[in-house]
């Protein structure tokens, strides 16, 4: 393990990850795991996002959180064959939903003394079983949003980061690494997530499969926000928009 370098932090700022002193934190993730505090935070987020209810707020927050924590981790695994460990106790969210981290608690982990396959399993177990699963569980409890929506929100971040890397990457070693990591995630047991079954395996798609069938199975409910802050109306892979398009096509 080595300490974070300025180069690493510059890369991570692409994912809106900042050192704690750089941003004013709104809530520590340890506090978010308390149902009462989570509910209070979601109520504030509902107002900030202009969401109609807690379920929509929790869904949008989970998409954002997956980008911050999951996308950044998978990107580092492919690009650097290293990863910044992000324990729950080291993380907080700012009001703008940026990730604030305590540098002293986050270690930059390289593949060194063990095989990459074992290193990868350790990294992803820390990421999912110890971090993402508890966060999604508390969002579900506080908002009553279906867990299937929350987990597909995570999966589409996985699909997206791998798609973007594949679109620009020419290094065959990195492409092989990406494909290996993707297939490991898709075929992992529920144990990797501290769940009975793998909650994202049915949603993971890359390459030709993603091009042919880009639409989600569940809807993240972005379209229900009062303000379309991203100016997109519906997400590009929205199943509702896809169904509406098919119906219009049949009626024409």
UniProtKB/TrEMBL annotation:
Every Ferric siderophore reductase C-terminal domain range: 216-239
Organism per entry: Metabacillus sediminilitoris
GO MF term list: 2 iron, 2 sulfur cluster binding; catalytic activity
One family name in Pfam for this protein: FhuF_C
Domain Aerobactin siderophore biosynthesis IucA/IucC-like C-terminal: 115-172
Protein name stated in the entry: Fe-S oxidoreductase
């Amino acid at each position: 393990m080595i300490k974070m370098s300025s180069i690493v932090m510059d890369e991570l700022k692409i994912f809106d990850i900042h050192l704690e002193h750089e941003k004013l934190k709104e809530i520590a993730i340890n506090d978010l795991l308390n149902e009462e505090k989570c509910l209070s935070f979601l109520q504030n987020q509902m107002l900030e996002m202009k969401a109609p209810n807690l379920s929509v707020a929790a869904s949008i927050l989970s998409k954002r959180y997956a980008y911050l924590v999951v996308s950044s981790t998978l990107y580092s695994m492919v690009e650097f064959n290293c990863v910044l460990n992000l324990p729950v106790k080291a993380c907080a969210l700012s009001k703008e939903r940026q990730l604030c981290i305590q540098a002293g608690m986050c270690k930059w982990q390289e593949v060194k003394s063990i095989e990459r396959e074992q290193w990868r399993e350790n990294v992803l177990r820390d990421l999912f079983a110890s971090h993402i699963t508890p966060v999604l569980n508390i969002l579900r409890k506080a908002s009553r949003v279906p867990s299937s929506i929350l987990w597909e929100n995570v999966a589409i971040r996985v699909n997206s980061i791998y798609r973007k890397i594949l679109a620009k990457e020419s290094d065959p070693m990195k492409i092989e690494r990406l494909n290996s990591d993707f297939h490991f995630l898709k075929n992992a047991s529920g144990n990797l997530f501290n769940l009975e079954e793998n909650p994202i395996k049915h949603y993971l798609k890359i390459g030709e499969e993603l091009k042919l069938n880009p639409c989600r199975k569940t809807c993240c409910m972005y379209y229900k926000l009062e303000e379309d802050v991203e100016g997109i109306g519906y997400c590009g892979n929205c199943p509702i928009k896809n169904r509406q398009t098919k119906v219009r096509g049949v009626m024409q």
